[in-house]
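A.,

Following up on our hallway conversation. Structure tokens first:
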């Protein structure tokens, strides 16, 4: 037996409410305690997810770093000799990405350029070699606008970037590598470094770019998260460095450095009983004691690029359970009352839920057939349903645009070697749309024709360049070759899955047929020729007459009009020619306003 969505919703709501009320009514104190513990788990899980999301959002700057290296390659500014542009680019990136505290580039010959940011401005360090091979080291101090404040030369500086870990790791792994968190030498702040090797087109190593990303604000955020009055959240890496605790004596604190009675350490000691704390693979939820106090703890591992970190937290049970125990009876009564009210409201809600979903179902069936010109589903008062409808409508629009864009690009490809590529296809669609309205086609038919017309010369993809691009009159052999392009186009578009492609195939195959049967490739005549092909036949000739070609100058509108009229009843369908006459001024305007930039719209 199949149930309607509305009936299923009412039954589901009723069953859930009745069962929930029954369970709540039979709960004892201990079952409530279990539920409260589960609630505590959910709260901790939500906070863990929040902390992870914040961490990932913060560290997504790594993506910017990857983009930076690619941009530097593409812009050809990865060169120690192009120092001014490289420094400007570093400055721009540090201004955009607030977490970048330093960018530097080291060449294989030992040349080095570094730009560091602090509260007052920027420090630039430059290591270069003069024409005599002498090593020169300069440091300059600049304000926040990169205006030079002071510059000095360091004669005794021995710094060699090629022996630094970030350089060595990038070269050895031949890809972007992350460091574990450490204390930056200059700023004395905690951070990580991503380094990326740069290669020439011949795969020869040119150097390595390094980017320092401060994590101090992330650590402060995590450290300030609270769970109840006595809970805490902390962030640990696989080396057991506690990234969320303040730095102590210029060192990141580790698990081993904590006191034995530290709650964080007690939680980790409990975790040790279940897994290797340096390689946590899944979420752990556990309980432990400190004296006569019970604690709950959670550990949730996550990855950011190559970094493997763990969000840990603990909470004193009484922080949550004490309050929940006091409100036990009140919560039960409240849930029962709300449940009864919800039972009535659920019947009303089902109407709001089922109707738009049924509409989405019907629309989905149409989209399966690529009927993408249907109207959008109307908004719904329920937020989640409305978001689904909005997403569905956007999906339909995006699918429609992607489909038409693909179709359009395929059409452009067919005339890529001509000088009038996209403009010609745009005009053909607009001409066809104007004539179709005069002929009396429906809006759906006009929509299909407008976009299907783009496929009219797709078969030219199969015509040799020596024929297609010949500047002059074709001989008999070449004429026969060019006349194969309708059949080639039909072959390209065979077995279409949408109305647009079906009509595009017909237009491609038949748009060179003539009303009197003297056309090609099949010699159809009169209404044997599909109407869409008859319309495109006229507009294709009209556009060719109005456009400059390698073998002729553009004709004016009067001469072009006369030629079309002379073909009435012989080359062209008389009714379509009449429609052409009715909208002639509009066609001329389309030709003039679409000759420089395509106006192709969906």
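Then the amino acids I'd put at each of the 602 positions:
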């Amino acid at each position: 037996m199949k149930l309607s969505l509305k009936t299923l919703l009412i039954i589901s709501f009723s069953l859930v409410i009745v069962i929930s009320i029954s369970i709540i009514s039979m709960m004892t104190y201990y079952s409530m305690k279990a539920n409260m513990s589960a609630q505590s788990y959910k709260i901790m899980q939500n906070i863990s997810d929040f902390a992870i999301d914040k961490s990932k959002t913060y560290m997504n700057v790594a993506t910017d770093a990857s983009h930076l290296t690619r941009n530097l390659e593409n812009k050809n500014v990865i060169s120690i000799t192009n120092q001014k542009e490289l420094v400007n680019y570093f400055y721009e990136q540090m201004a955009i990405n607030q977490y970048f505290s330093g960018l530097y580039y080291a060449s294989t010959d030992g040349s080095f350029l570094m730009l560091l940011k602090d509260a007052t401005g920027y420090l630039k360090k430059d290591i270069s070699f003069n024409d005599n091979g002498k090593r020169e080291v300069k440091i300059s101090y600049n304000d926040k606008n990169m205006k030079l404040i002071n510059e000095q030369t360091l004669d005794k500086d021995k710094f060699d970037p090629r022996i630094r870990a970030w350089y060595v790791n990038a070269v050895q792994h031949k890809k972007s590598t992350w460091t574990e968190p450490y204390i930056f030498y200059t700023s004395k702040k905690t951070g990580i470094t991503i380094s990326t090797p740069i290669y020439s087109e011949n795969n020869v190593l040119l150097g390595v770019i390094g980017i320092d990303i401060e994590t101090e604000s992330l650590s402060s955020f995590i450290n300030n998260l609270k769970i109840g009055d006595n809970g805490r959240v902390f962030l640990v890496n696989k080396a057991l460095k506690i990234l969320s605790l303040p730095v102590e004596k210029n060192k990141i604190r580790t698990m081993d450095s904590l006191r034995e009675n530290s709650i964080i350490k007690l939680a980790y000691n409990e975790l040790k009983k279940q897994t290797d704390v340096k390689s946590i693979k899944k979420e752990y939820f556990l309980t432990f004691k400190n004296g006569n106090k019970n604690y709950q703890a959670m550990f949730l591992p996550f990855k950011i690029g190559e970094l493997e970190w763990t969000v840990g937290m603990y909470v004193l049970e009484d922080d949550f359970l004490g309050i929940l125990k006091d409100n036990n009876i009140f919560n039960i009564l409240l849930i029962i009352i709300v449940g009864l009210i919800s039972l009535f409201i659920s019947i009303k809600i089902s109407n709001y839920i089922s109707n738009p979903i049924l509409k989405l179902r019907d629309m989905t069936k149409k989209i399966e057939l690529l009927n993408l010109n249907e109207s959008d589903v109307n908004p719904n008062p329920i937020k989640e349903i409305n978001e689904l409808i909005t997403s569905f409508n956007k999906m339909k629009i995006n699918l429609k645009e992607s489909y038409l864009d693909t179709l359009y690009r395929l059409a452009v490809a067919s005339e890529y070697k001509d000088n009038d590529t996209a403009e010609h296809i745009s005009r053909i669609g607009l001409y066809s749309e104007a004539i179709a309205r005069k002929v009396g086609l429906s809006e759906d038919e006009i929509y299909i024709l407008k976009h299907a017309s783009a496929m009219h010369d797709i078969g030219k993809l199969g015509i040799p360049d020596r024929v297609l691009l010949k500047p002059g009159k074709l001989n008999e052999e070449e004429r026969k070759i060019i006349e194969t392009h309708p059949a080639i186009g039909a072959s390209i578009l065979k077995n279409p899955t949408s109305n647009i492609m079906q009509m595009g195939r017909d237009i491609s195959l038949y748009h060179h047929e003539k009303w009197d049967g003297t056309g090609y490739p099949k010699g159809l005549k009169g209404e044997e020729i599909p109407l869409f092909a008859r319309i495109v036949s006229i507009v294709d000739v009209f556009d060719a007459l109005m456009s400059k070609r390698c073998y002729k100058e553009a004709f004016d509108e009067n001469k072009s009009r006369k030629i079309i009229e002379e073909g009435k009843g012989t080359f062209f369908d008389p009714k379509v020619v009449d429609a052409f006459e009715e909208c002639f001024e509009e066609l001329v305007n389309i030709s003039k306003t679409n000759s420089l930039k395509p106006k192709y719209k969906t």
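The domain at 415-593 is CATH 1.10.3210.10 (Hypothetical protein af1432). Curious whether your intuition agrees with the design.

B.
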